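Thread: Newbie trying to understand structure tokens

Hi all, I'm a second-year student working on a class project, and my supervisor (Dr. K.) asked me to get a predicted structure for one chain before our next meeting. I've only ever worked with sequences, so writing a 3D structure as a token string is new to me. If someone could post the tokens and maybe explain what I'm looking at, I'd be very grateful. Here's the chain:
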Amino acid sequence: MRDSVTGWLTLLDKYLTEYVQRRVSRHLIGPPHITGPLKAVVEAIDTLLPPELAGAPMQAKKRRLSEWSAPIADALTKLYARRPLDRHHPDDAPLVYALRALGQALREQAQLDNVGANAATTAAANADPSNLALSLSDAIALTLSRVRDLAPPPPEPASAAVEILGWLELQLDDAPHLIVTGVNEGMIPESVNHDAFLPDSLRRDLGLLDNRRRHARDLMALTAILHSRPHVRLVAGRRSADDDPLTPSRLLLACAGDELARRIGRFYDHSEEPAPPPPLLPTGKRSRLVIPPPVAPLAAIEELNVTAFRDYLACPYRFYLKHVCKLDTLDDRAVELSAPAFGNLAHKVLENFGQGPLATSDNPADIADFLNEELDRACRLTYGQQPTVAITLQREQLRQRLAAFARWQAQETRDGWSIAIQTEKRFAAPFPVDGQPFRIVGRIDRIDRHPEKGLRILDYKTGDKGEFPEKTHRFKGEWVDLQLPLYRLLARAAGLEGACALGYVLLPKKLAETGLAAAEWSEEELAHAEEEARRIVRAIRQSIFWPPTEPPKFDDGLGSICMDLSLDRARVIRAGGSGGEGSAGT
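---
Reply by user tm_fold:
Sure, no problem. This is what the structure looks like when written as tokens:
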């Protein structure tokens, strides 16, 4: 049951991320494979609602907060009445505590109309007067807000739990086995040397606890501990959480001659291999997090999208996370279109234009009208009849860019260019490397033909800045993206022979810059791009996914895994991720 709930929550996150809906209603957007499971979730929620709300919007009926307590309690009863809960079990204890807290909040809210309510109820009443009407969803949100910050009690210790005591309490404990940690100078014996108002000498003169008396106290305590039980182990750390060196307690060095030398030598002996750092994040300036090392894929990668080569060139390890581990990020808090979603909306509209009857028109007004209709239709299908205000503004911004595109497209048609292949068509091309088969795939936005100038492959770009292909594909003479060069191979596989120009159709924020941005690369440079793609295929076949690119310049939601903000990142990378050997690609 828990796995299925987790699956539904992920599905809801994907739905809210892709369709940017503020809530899941009964009017679902999207294809059947998405709306089908979500419909089942909505129907299951309906069974928890009061009869008068089943099948109606949760905002349709409003009541006073006190009147919603019983329906909310009934819904919780339906969810958990048949589930056995043991408050002593570590898996059930948090849920039991949460249900008790909710029950207490609902009881208080149910008494809001009564006179003489207690202080907690009065505070809730002040926040929600009895004459204020709320919807069920608002009442649930208010109830949750009252218990959200309550800290659950610590878990009950198991029978085999280890009791942790303070230093001064240890000698009074009768446990036969005792482990004393932190037996380092400054901690045992405790020492206070920097008190500006009560220095150690003044403490001694006033008869207060000073370092000399602390030393005598702790020496007595350690002696009593060692002589009062059969098993005692003293542990002294070599380095602090900030990785500063530590020294052993002077109590451990209270011996002479060869024994003193032996103890010091043992403490500073580094001949033993240190254990790898644990995958935890303790307090301190230095992180103990580790980057999970890559492992070879179980199945060989035999196909890549042309855009995936850019990911490998940017960071082999992030390529591994995205294309081998299939990691992705979801943000159900989105209220506006992300840059990729804005571009996808524009691509959908332009795809319909390229396949429609006005693809050969040279009338900018007719093209603009068609694009406007397609934009409105695409927004309704993807973001519903009532999109957020932010999406509405973004739609109008895109409408202006499409109007500028319409003028450019009409001029291109008058200049003799026509769309040879419908836009957004998926292509595949064989790409053998070292005699072994491989394949590249991709979607080309449009391929144009001119009776005299030949073919050109174009990619729509909706970025605000309107960057040219040279800037997006190369940096200091090196390839950082292979998308356009590899498009040529896809076009050849589709039977389009001969010279083929490459470029972008820019739809930037500055409408005056709308139009063609040609890629002016030589045949030698394009051949080098293809060879770079073969190098990447060889590296992927050898499972070379390490090291991560340094310094990190990514905003893909994977920064925590890659330790982007950690001061220890370079050290962890040099150590091979987790400090061990044998990682794929190391």
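A couple of things are worth pointing out once you decode it. The chain has four domains: 47-147, 167-267, 294-332+416-545, 334-415. Confidence is low (pLDDT under 50) at residues 1-5, 115-130, 278-284, 579-586. Feel free to ask follow-ups in this thread.
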